[in-house]
Design brief:
This protein has 352 residues and is α+β, with helices and mostly antiparallel strands. The chain contains ten helices and 17 strands. The protein folds into two domains: 176 residues, no CATH class; 138 residues, no CATH class.
């Protein structure tokens, strides 16, 4: 978990990169930017807002041969070893980004290299390097008094509410390639930012495993439970799965299967499905891990718990109390009407 509210900007360098294929140039500032009390809180919020609103999916520096061949990893090492060198190293970082800016789709823009202190990561204060890029320019109006008239003037600038691209490199787990967060609002050139410039791979931590395993279960419910049982059992399987993750600190696969699968015949189906599909989710050999609560909370929001009926009626089941649907909702068949039905038991109607 991260807490960015007390983060302090110790150094800010601003440069500009163009697109090499369009013969646009690179501009490297001769000195760090001097922040004042008016700009500092605004620019800090611009840099960090997207990371607070985004799910924490961590990356780490990687290289197919060896981590020491990752250029940005080495530049990050230089800054963390000697923070006073951040401006000179920021020029090398910007030049590295410029060298990757040759695809016609890549936009020119300003590059900000920031050295932060007082980042809180996993309840530990750490320093961090921020690398940000603003690409899209937006029209806005300025007003000027001219004689007896108030005139409108159209100008262009960046939107401080939305970061185009950004990465936070936390000074933690250096030997493994640090812990890194990335945002990219412009999805058309993700390979350019994540792969070509940052050179990162997904960090397979507990948050990653929790998220991927729940996504795998969601697809198992849709592909196997639904055809073998019915829509209610598909939803109930995911109800029980999320409930298991919410109530336990650690995951153990055999215990999980015995807890969430009512039909014993589906357990070998689950294992077969995992053998076939697990590589897609990078959970082939995963049978035990610590559960990340933040990933469970996020999964609750994305998993549908609604049964849609062809009679224009919806039945919404509760992930918080999945045992209620098990006890108080029954499915049956009406011979007279030749239709399925759901029978719902209750004592009284709750006021909304």
């Amino acid at each position: 978990m991260i807490n960015l509210y007390n983060a302090q900007i110790e150094s800010l360098s601003i440069h500009r990169v163009g697109n090499k294929s369009r013969n646009e140039n690179i501009f490297l500032s001769g000195a760090p930017f001097e922040l004042n009390d008016e700009i500092a809180p605004l620019i800090k919020e611009y840099f960090l807002k997207s990371f607070r609103e985004k799910e924490e999916n961590y990356y780490q520096f990687a290289h197919e041969t060896d981590l020491e061949y990752n250029e940005l990893y080495n530049l990050a090492n230089q800054i963390f070893d000697a923070p006073e060198s951040v401006h000179e190293v920021s020029k090398k970082i910007t030049t590295l980004l410029f060298e990757q800016s040759s695809h016609p789709h890549i936009k020119s823009g300003e590059v900000y290299v920031v050295y932060f202190e007082n980042m809180l990561l996993d309840n530990e204060k750490v320093s961090a390097i921020g690398i940000f890029k603003s690409e899209l320019k937006h029209d806005f109006l300025q007003f000027q008094e001219k004689g007896s008239l108030l005139e409108m003037v159209i100008q262009q600038g960046i939107n401080l509410q939305k970061m185009d691209k950004g990465a936070l490199i936390f000074n933690k787990n250096r030997a493994e390639g640090y812990k890194i967060l990335s945002v990219d609002s412009n999805k058309y050139d993700t390979k350019y930012w994540l792969e070509n410039f940052l050179g990162v791979d997904v960090l397979a931590d507990d948050n990653f495993y929790t998220k991927k395993y729940l996504k795998f279960c969601q697809n198992f419910a849709k592909d196997v439970v639904l055809p073998a049982e019915d829509k209610k059992e598909e939803v109930m399987f995911m109800n029980r799965s999320v409930d298991y993750f919410a109530k336990n600190d650690s995951f153990e696969e055999t215990n999980f299967l015995n807890s969430v699968i009512d039909n014993p015949e589906l357990i070998p189906e689950f294992r077969n499905y995992k053998t076939e599909k697990a590589p897609k989710y990078k959970i082939e050999d995963l049978t035990e891990f610590n559960i990340a609560n933040a990933a469970v909370t996020s999964a609750r929001k994305s998993i549908k718990n609604v049964i849609n009926l062809d009679t224009n009626i919806q039945i919404k089941l509760d992930f918080i109390n999945p045992e209620s649907a098990q006890k108080f909702v029954e499915k049956g068949w009406d011979e007279e009407k030749q239709m399925y039905y759901y029978l719902v038991y209750f004592n009284k109607e709750e006021k909304s």
